[in-house]
Write a structure and sequence with these properties.
The complex is a heterodimer. Chain A is mainly beta. Chain A has no helices and eleven strands. The radius of gyration of chain A is 13 Å and the shape is globular. Chain B is mostly beta strands. Chain B is built from no helices and eleven strands. In chain B, strands 2, 4, 5, 6, 9, 10 and 11 form a seven-stranded mixed β-sheet that branches. Chain B has a four-stranded antiparallel β-sheet with strand order 1-3-8-7, with no helix packed on it. The chains are: A mainly beta, B mainly beta.
Chain lengths: 107, 129
């Protein structure tokens, strides 16, 4: 299986900050990488697919980049509703795997 | 609006069985692959199983292969997960998820990307004696 490793595991930031979360795959996955946001008590929400394509309805302050094994999710200016846990997920193989998650907290 | 509603979760003893159901509405269910994803307490998301739109192809995580069976009834817009030989580590919230295919054309090459764009609210499975 392809192992997905996110860093950091948790992150404290302030409103308006620019935040970057990293996801690394254990092998080349081209750009078959998706990002999800998970809030307590709610189902995960798709943010970005194909490493950099913003899902419809997702604010433009979210962006994704990367290819191969290294990927990033960037939030350009943190808003109150962005404090959540973020997961990356590879869809390069049919045996899908997620990263362990990055918890974004208010400083 | 597409909606997925799971049911069938509950408390079961180790070694027991449970069948989860997921009813889809607001989408052409038979056109999409579907998956089950779980989230154990204090842990992250884990993909459990997936099935093609026709039901002809199925996929399983190593942790559940041989114990869980995914299947669907397109005439009822319903996805199922039959869980046998349950273990304490299967305790989790189980989400029913719609798989979407995105198409990107670059020059003369067409790329297909798969992602999970509709999620149910989840059903809780607790395995404990």
């Amino acid at each position: 299986d392809i192992r997905m490793t996110q860093s950091p595991s948790s992150l404290s930031a302030s409103l308006g900050d620019r935040v970057t979360i990293t996801c690394r795959a254990s092998q080349n996955i081209n750009n078959y990488l998706n990002w999800y946001q998970r809030k307590p008590g709610k189902a995960p929400k798709l943010l970005i697919y194909a490493a950099s394509i913003l899902q419809s309805g997702v604010p433009s302050r979210f962006s994704g980049s990367g290819s191969g094994t290294d990927f990033t999710l960037t939030i350009s200016s943190l808003q109150p509703e962005d404090f959540a846990t973020y997961f990356c997920q590879q869809s390069y193989t049919t045996l899908i795997t997620f990263g362990q998650g990055t918890r974004l907290e208010i400083k | 609006e597409a909606q997925l509603v799971e049911s069938g979760g509950g408390l079961v003893k180790p070694g027991g069985s449970l069948r989860l159901s997921c009813v889809a509405s607001g989408l052409s269910f038979s056109n999409y692959g579907m998956s089950w994803v779980r989230e154990a307490p204090g842990k992250g998301l884990e993909w459990v199983s997936g099935i093609s739109d026709s039901g002809g192809s199925t996929y399983y995580a190593a942790s559940v292969k041989g114990r869980f069976t995914i299947f669907r009834d397109n005439s009822k817009n319903t996805l199922y997960l039959q869980m046998n030989s349950l273990r304490a580590e299967d305790t989790a919230v189980y989400y029913c998820v719609k798989d979407e295919e995105g198409v990107v054309v670059k020059g003369e090459t067409v790329y297909y990307y798969y992602y999970m764009d509709v999620w149910g609210k989840g059903t809780t499975v607790t395995v404990s004696s």
